[in-house]
Design brief:
With about 350 residues, the protein is mainly alpha-helical. It contains 14 helices and 2 strands. The two termini are about 35 Å apart.
Length: about 350
């Protein structure tokens, strides 16, 4: 996903770079003389205004962004076709009980399932939902508003609308490589809290120095690195914790991820709608959006993680109903099946015989 996001901004960089080069060539061919004090004041103000608008996003970039969208759609369609045509799903068999499964010639294994209504009896279900929602709020908001911050607040050249987000995604790509050893050393909950602290540091930096002169020269780049690393840590860790919550209940995975996605989309829609409604066209508005709207989800993530300090994600509590209704065909051979039943399951809530 990080590589896909990087590809989007690489394509944007190419098209906007070509557009900026053509504008520069056109400006050089029709050089405007700087206004003098003897000129009519309105004409002088108009020319100065044109100088200030040079390099920012406007209607002149309509074709460039259209080409970016069409190129991304084309590449995405090609890879989606490759996935659906080239990916083969494993065989799946269903039986009414374990006795019918034993009569089948193919080796099958019993899988413990949780009914949909039983997910709502788990406190960790809501905690992971809040954690995932905070993650998506942070990531989606900084991805949405960092280009507007660069263009409207910092007044940087149009090419940096693609450069700064590209730095963020490249940093998040590099940050993903250190996720596994960090998770192994301090655990996923502490790793998630660490990602929240990194993201919060970036938000504080934007709020404190977003209007300083150095920020436009070099300050925006380390902030972009912090935003990218924080987003990568939060996204990867929250998805991993959601997978831990599902555990061996693969049939419930669609429901869990669907519920998390519902919380994510509704919350993002409401927050972005409020942000746009409160927009007063102040040049520092998007600095405040990145500082507060992205900082609050980081604080929320830390609070949720603290409430999960003694919780074991994926472990069922007493009183929760579990129904064994399906039998899946084991893709491994008989020896690996017996090894799996002897206690090599990832989820500690399930014993080797399929019971809690």
């Amino acid at each position: 996903m990080v590589l896909a996001n990087m590809l989007v901004f690489v394509i944007t960089f190419i098209f906007l770079g070509v557009d900026a080069f053509e504008d520069k060539e056109e400006t050089n061919s029709t050089t405007l003389a700087p206004p003098t004090t003897t000129e009519f004041p309105a004409t002088a103000l108009r020319v100065v205004d044109e100088y200030q608008k040079t390099g920012t996003i406007g209607r002149d970039q309509l074709d460039s962004f259209r080409n970016v969208a069409l190129t991304c759609i084309g590449i995405g369609s090609i890879f989606s076709l490759i996935f659906h045509v080239g990916t083969k799903e494993p065989q799946y068999c269903r039986a009414k009980n374990s006795e019918e499964a034993e009569e089948k010639s193919s080796p099958c294994r019993r899988v413990t399932r949780i009914r949909k209504r039983d997910w709502f009896k788990m406190l960790t279900f809501y905690q992971v939902g809040a954690m995932y929602t905070a993650t998506r709020l942070y990531v989606n908001l900084y991805m949405t508003y960092i280009p507007l911050f660069v263009d409207n607040t910092l007044k940087m050249d149009i090419i940096f609308v693609a450069v700064v987000p590209m730095i963020m995604h490249f940093s998040s790509f590099l940050g993903s490589f250190v996720m596994k050893p960090i998770n192994r050393i301090i655990g996923r909950k502490r790793t998630f809290s660490l990602g929240c602290c990194v993201g919060l540091a970036a938000c504080i930096w934007i709020g404190a120095g977003g209007q300083s002169g150095y920020f436009k020269v070099w300050g925006v780049y380390p902030v972009a690195v912090l935003l990218g690393i924080g987003g990568s840590v939060l996204l990867i860790t929250s998805l991993s914790i959601t997978a831990d919550l599902i555990g061996e209940n693969s049939e419930g995975g669609a429901f869990v991820y669907g519920f998390m996605s519902l919380l994510d989309k509704v919350s993002n829609g409401i927050v972005i709608m409020v942000i746009q409604k409160l927009d007063d066209n102040h040049p520092m508005y998007y600095r405040e959006v990145l500082a507060f709207a992205c900082g609050v989800p980081c604080i929320l993530g830390v609070v949720v993680t603290l409430t999960m300090y003694k919780s074991r994600v994926g472990v069922l509590e007493r009183g929760q109903i579990v129904v064994v209704t399906t039998v899946e065909k084991d893709p491994e051979d008989t020896d690996s099946t017996e090894k799996h039943r002897s206690g090599s399951m990832d989820n500690p809530a399930f014993e080797s015989d399929g019971h809690i």
